């Protein structure tokens, strides 16, 4: 039996902030203050810090010493570079999954995600496409 761990509180906070960044509620260069997020969401400061680190790894924010977290400016060049990098990472991930593949059922989650990715692309649903992209990593985990 396979168990799927629910998203941690930090991942939920990161998802909430990522949606706000993608929608444009948080502007490029805007500072994200830990204390304000802590109070607004009624969560611990440690969970907010962890969420900010998740967002930094996803290149949605930059954390600078003594300046805090700021929303990253996503130019066309940066997005294209990130897509190239992600493509390379997906190749490595695919190789790792293929090495552990034992039965046809092992591929079922990836095929389902592929269908949802294709559907979100056809609908031009950026939010769903980004979410499904992260689901590839979760399924591989």
Please explain how this structure is put together.
By secondary structure, this protein is mainly α. It folds into two domains: 9-71, Winged helix-like DNA-binding domain superfamily/Winged helix DNA-binding domain (Arc Repressor Mutant, subunit A), CATH 1.10.10; 76-140. The chain is built from six helices and three strands; from the N terminus they run αβααββααα. β2 (61-64) and β3 form a beta hairpin. The longest helix has 25 residues, at 76-100. It is globular.
In brief, what are we looking at here?
By secondary structure, the chain is mostly helical. The protein has 6 helices and 3 strands; from the N terminus they run H-E-H-H-E-E-H-H-H.
Query: How many separate helices?
Result: 6
The count of domains is 2
**Helix fraction?**
55-70%
**Strand count:** 3
Quaternary status = single chain
- Shape label: globular
**Distance between the first and last residues' Cα:** 15 Å
Biggest sheet layout: 3 strands, antiparallel
Mean pLDDT: 84
Task: Write out the strand line-up for the largest beta sheet, numbering strands in chain order.
Answer: 1-3-2
Question: Which labels suit this protein?
Answer:
three-stranded antiparallel beta sheet; 6 helices; 65% helix; 141 residues; Arc Repressor Mutant, subunit A
Topology, pairings included?
Blueprint: H1 9-23, E1 31-32, H2 34-41, H3 45-57, E2 61-64, E3 68-71, H4 76-100, H5 108-122, H6 126-140
Antiparallel strand pairs: 1-3, 2-3
Helix pairs in contact: 1-3, 5-6
């Amino acid at each position: 039996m396979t168990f799927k761990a629910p998203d941690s509180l930090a991942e939920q906070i990161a998802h909430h902030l990522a949606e706000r960044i993608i929608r444009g509620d948080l502007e490029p260069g805007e500072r994200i203050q830990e204390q304000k997020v802590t109070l607004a969401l009624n969560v611990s400061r440690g969970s907010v810090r962890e969420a900010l680190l998740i967002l930094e790894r996803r290149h949605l924010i930059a954390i600078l010493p003594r300046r805090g977290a700021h929303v990253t400016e996503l130019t066309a060049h940066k997005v294209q570079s990130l897509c190239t990098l992600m493509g390379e990472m997906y190749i490595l991930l695919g190789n790792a999954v293929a090495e552990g593949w034992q039965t046809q059922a092992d591929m079922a989650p990836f095929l389902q995600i592929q269908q949802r990715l294709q559907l979100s692309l056809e609908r031009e649903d950026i939010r769903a496409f980004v979410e499904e992209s992260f689901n590839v990593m979760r399924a591989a985990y």
